[in-house]
Design goal:
- There is one protein chain.
- With 228 residues, this protein is mostly helical.
- The chain is 77% helix and 5% strand.
- A two-stranded antiparallel sheet has the order 1-2.
- Helix 3 packs parallel to helix 9 and helix 6 runs antiparallel to helix 9.
- The longest helix has 34 residues.
- The chain is elongated and about 80 Å long.
- The protein starts with 5 loop residues before the first strand and ends with a helix.
């Protein structure tokens, strides 16, 4: 805040007992950054890993893999429930990986920005909500641009403008949903006294896959049943 290269340390009587220099702070920043990156990946510090058994290492990583497994299993059930729509329009399946990838990228981008702001203690509650709404506005603009590019690709490829509009709308909603989840989850975890860095891993991706897939296939089903 004050751009100091060192700060004094005093006791309860305000007597000088030492100082904290900038090199100490840099060490702390590096340690915190490494810890956050490890938690994002669902792992722990490599120095600790060298002293742990295979079973304990697996115990630390396995919960995150199970979260991802359950999420992707839910995605499979969702696709099964929309199998009629996929069979009716085979092209529906072509765009599923694209929807999931773009939504996941948008969610990770938003959550990373929010986690960084929380880690640096930037602003209070009001500023955090303004940051959340800003992420929504950014996702709306990005979703519109990506959706427009997708519409052009679908129109040139399939010559079906109505289907292209549905795909475009789905892309916009999926990106906005992913950005909203990515920006909101770190705030919720912070309020619950959990480290928000853990939200940027499988949890964000899995949530996007389940909700994003439901949004996409739901809109395509509506198109098939009531428009096509």
């Amino acid at each position: 805040k004050y751009d100091l290269v060192s700060v004094p340390v005093v006791d309860k009587y305000n007597r000088l007992v030492g100082r904290i220099t900038i090199d100490d702070i840099v060490d702390v920043l590096q340690d915190e950054a490494n810890e956050d990156l490890d938690r994002m990946a669902g792992i722990i510090d490599e120095e600790i890993l060298q002293e742990m058994s295979t079973l304990r290492i697996s115990k630390n990583r396995l919960p995150w893999l199970i979260v991802g497994f359950i999420g992707e299993l839910c995605s499979a059930f969702i696709m099964k429930s929309f199998d009629k729509s996929i069979e009716h329009t085979v092209a529906t399946a072509f765009f599923i990986p694209l929807m999931m990838a773009m939504g996941g990228n948008a969610g990770i981008q938003s959550s990373t920005i929010v986690v960084r702001s929380i880690a640096l203690a930037e602003g209070g509650t009001t500023d955090r909500w303004s940051r959340f709404y800003r992420e929504l506005r950014v996702s709306l603009l990005n979703g519109f641009i990506i959706g427009l590019l997708l519409f052009c690709a679908v129109f040139l490829w399939m010559r079906e403008p109505l289907f292209g509009l549905v795909i475009t709308l789905a892309m916009m909603v999926v990106i906005m949903n992913a950005a909203a989840v990515g920006a909101l989850v770190p705030f919720v975890l912070t309020r619950l006294k959990y480290d928000p860095a853990i939200a940027t891993g499988p949890f964000i991706t899995t949530t996007n896959d389940v909700i994003g897939l439901t949004i996409y296939l739901g809109l395509v089903t509506f198109y098939i049943n009531y428009i096509a």
